[in-house]
Every structure is written in structure tokens, then in C-alpha cells.
Specification:
Elements: H1 10-41, H2 44-71, H3 74-97, H4 103-126, H5 128-131, H6 137-188, H7 205-217, H8 220-252, H9 254-280, H10 288-306, H11 312-340, H12 346-358, H13 361-374, H14 377-395, H15 399-402
Helix pairs in contact: 1-6, 2-4, 2-8, 2-12, 2-13, 3-4, 3-6, 4-12, 6-9, 6-11, 7-12, 8-9, 8-12, 8-13, 8-14, 9-11, 10-11, 10-14, 13-14
Length: 405
């Protein structure tokens, strides 16, 4: 099948295998963390603060991470990140298993996790053009998404079973083991000279950052989309990430909340997989300005519908649509950056992209959690969907955005 063509590349096959296993472990972690926080505190505000603690260090260190990724071996950056994250999650597992895990522990460990992510994700993003030929990059990007989403289809259900049998500590431990496996796959990748970036003795961190910023500012389609993403992520990520567990709990009751929440996460993954299969079949995407923004608008409207009094089936349809839209947006955007941005600047540009897109997300997470606790969860989704639609529509007013092909 055409979308599998990048797996013929041994380096990518090993990278993909390790990352898929790691994402499976992360799905265990996500379910366990959400359930542990809600059981411990019963508060959406606490969940929002946990997510914010992880996001803030990432945001602070992203630009440094982008410079490091363009200067040093991307494989070594990923290896170190996997090792540190394994230690963090295994520590959480031990504390949870001995009944010593407290909310403040989770805040601190989430912050460490976020700091490491600032180096790992630019490296994982920028390494694709190094190891995958141009004609195979839509396949590689789609397969990475397929691996992640497949993990999140089977992961939540397995996580529920594991948590029922061994508690959240076992779920955390499995995530820690997945990072070890990911690191082993990276070690097995064939050596490539391009993996190690020679350092320019006359270069400095400030000069490298300035070069990355110049690349972004010279492309209106790039900085406009980053700006739109930065504002809209307040109204999109806040409700979806911080309030969804509470919405499920309020609508379906405590007894059914774990099962319904796991089901919704799995359906969300299916939505991503469907669009990843479609995009992976394409050799080249066309009319990417309209494609990305059209999908983005559909996702915003689906977010609004999640706030309506829907049954389980209706929520599944809405969350499928939301993630299909976000999937098209993310995959088309990744493909666009990998095609138009020089490989030696991709680490910095991807970091600037991530920073600009997610810098305000902690505010959205905190605001959404507080609003849900003091008003109600459905209203947060409806307001978030309406505001997101209006914000995203502004991006299409710029002719350079519409012209991206």
C-alpha cells in the first residue's frame, strides 16, 4: 500500500516502531493521570493546573530546544529525552504504588516532563527530512500519526483494564518501560553522518534564533497561521484537554465516566487515523491554505457541538469530527513546513511554530478549568467552539494564506 512506502527505510521503521510503543505507553499515562487527579481532588481546576505545569516549561525552553536541535545530533537529543522521561514516570509509579503520590508531586514531575519535551519534539520533527526522501514524507508523517492514534485507540481500553487490576501505579510503570523501548530503537538505527550537526564557531544562540525568526517573518502564511493558532488554542485546547473528563462525569455520572471517557479517546484516535490514511496515500497535497483552514473550522464547530446535550453516540460523532479536522490541519501543516523550510532551520522554525502556537495554552487550560468549576462544563465547550470559529476564520482573510499550495 502506498502509505506504507516509508517503512522500507530502516531508520524510519525503527524510529516509527519506538515512537509507536512510546505513544502506547503515553495513552496509559494520560488515562491514569486524569483519573488519579479527579479521584484525588474532584476538580477540573487541578487537572488544568497539572496540564499547565507541563506546558509552561515547554514553552519557556522551546526556542533553546530548537537551537540545540539544529546544532547537535538529533538522535542523541531524543535518546537523552527518553531516558529522563523514563526516570520521571517510573518515579511517579513508585510513589503511586506506595500511596505517597501527592498533587504537588504531580505538578513538579509534570514540569520536568514539559522541560524535556521542549528538546524532544523539535528533534523528532526535524529528523524526518534527514532520514526520509521528499517523495515519502507524506507517508512518513501519516504513519507517525497512525502509530500514535492506533496507540490511543487500544491504549485507553487497556489502560482501564490495567488500572482496574493494578492501579494507576502499574499504568505509570508501563509508560516508563515504553520510553526504554523507544530509546533502544533509536540506538539500533543505522548511523548517518547527517545526524550530527557541525557547529559554526562564529555562530551564537542569539544569532541562530534571529535566523529562525527571520525565516518565519519572511513568510506571511507562516506567521499569520502561528498567530491564529496561538490565540485559538486558548479556546480550543482549554475545553478539550482540561474539561472533557469533567464534561463526561457531569453528563454520564461517576460510575460510567471512566468507560465513556476511554471510548471517546478511542473514537478521537479513529478520526485521526482515517485522515492519516487518506493523506498518506497522496504524493503531494494541493491547495493547502484552504485545506488546513477548512479542516480547522470544522474542528472548531465540532468542539461547540460537544457542549450540546448529546448522548454517547452524538458525542462520539462530534469528537470524531473534531479530531479528523485537527488531524488534517496538523498533517498538512507538518508537510508544508518540511517542504518549504530548509532542513538546517527546521528545528528552530518548528520550535518558533510550537512556541507561538501554544504559548497561551496554559492560560486557556487554567481559565477553562476555573470556568467549568464555577459555571458548567457544557457552556465552556459551546463558548470555546464559537470563539474558535471566529478567530480561525480571520486567517483566511490574508491572500498569502489562501495561496499556499
Amino acid at each position: 500500500m502506498h502509505f506504507l512506502r516509508s517503512l522500507k527505510n530502516t531508520s524510519f521503521a525503527l524510529l516509527w516502531s519506538g515512537q509507536t510503543i512510546s505513544r502506547l505507553g503515553d495513552s496509559f499515562y494520560s488515562v491514569a493521570l486524569a483519573l488519579w487527579v479527579l479521584q484525588k481532588t474532584g476538580s477540573a481546576t487541578a487537572m488544568g493546573l497539572v496540564l499547565a505545569c507541563g506546558a509552561i516549561p515547554t514553552i519557556i525552553l522551546l526556542l533553546v530546544g530548537g537551537v540545540a536541535v539544529d546544532r547537535f545530533s538529533r538522535i542523541q537529543m531524543m535518546l537523552g529525552s527518553d531516558a529522563i522521561r523514563a526516570v520521571i514516570v517510573i518515579a511517579m509509579a513508585i510513589l503511586a504504588g506506595t500511596q505517597h503520590l501527592e498533587v504537588w508531586h504531580v505538578y513538579i514531575m509534570s514540569a520536568f516532563f514539559g522541560a524535556v519535551d521542549a528538546f524532544f519534539y523539535p528533534a523528532a520533527y526535524a529528523i524526518i527530512p534527514e532520514i526520509v526522501a521528499t517523495a515519502d514524507r507524506t507517508s512518513a508523517t501519516s504513519l507517525k500519526t497512525l502509530g500514535t492514534q492506533f496507540a490511543f485507540i487500544i491504549g485507553p481500553g487497556l489502560a482501564g483494564l490495567i488500572i482496574a487490576l493494578g492501579g494507576t501505579s502499574l499504568a505509570f510503570a508501563i509508560d516508563g518501560a515504553s520510553f526504554v523501548i523507544s530509546a533502544l530503537c533509536l540506538l539500533a538505527m543505522p548511523h548517518k553522518q547527517g545526524f550530527t550537526k557541525p557547529m559554526d564557531k562564529d555562530s551564537s544562540v542569539i544569532k541562530d534564533l534571529r535566523e529562525g525568526l527571520q525565516t518565519v517573518l519572511e513568510s506571511p502564511w507562516l506567521w499569520v497561521t502561528i498567530a491564529i493558532a496561538g490565540v485559538s488554542n486558548i479556546t480550543v485546547s482549554g475545553p478539550y484537554e482540561a474539561v472533557l473528563p469533567l464534561l463526561v462525569k457531569q453528563r454520564f455520572g461517576v460510575a460510567a465516566s471512566a468507560q465513556v471517557y476511554g471510548l471517546l479517546l478511542s473514537v478521537a484516535a479513529v478520526g485521526y487515523i482515517v485522515v492519516a490514511l487518506w493523506i498518506g496515500q497522496q504524493k503531494r497535497l494541493r491547495r493547502r491554505g484552504y485545506l488546513t483552514y477548512g479542516a480547522w473550522l470544522v474542528a472548531a464547530l465540532a468542539l461547540m457541538f460537544l457542549g450540546l446535550p448529546l448522548p454517547v453516540v452524538g458525542m462520539c460523532i462530534a469528537i470524531f469530527t473534531f479530531n479528523a479536522g485537527i488531524g488534517i490541519l496538523n498533517l498538512a501543516w507538518a508537510n508544508t513546513l518540511q517542504e518549504f523550510i530548509p532542513p538546517d532551520r527546521l528545528g528552530r522554525v518548528s520550535s518558533i511554530d510550537a512556541l507561538g502556537s501554544y504559548a497561551l495554552t496554559p492560560i486557556g487550560l487554567a481559565m477553562a478549568g476555573i470556568a467549568a468549576d464555577h459555571i458548567n462544563a457544557p457552556s465552556v465547550f459551546i463558548a470555546g467552539g464559537i470563539l474558535s470559529t471566529l478567530i480561525i476564520a480571520l486567517g483566511l482573510l490574508h491572500p498569502r494564506v489562501r495561496a499556499v499550495d
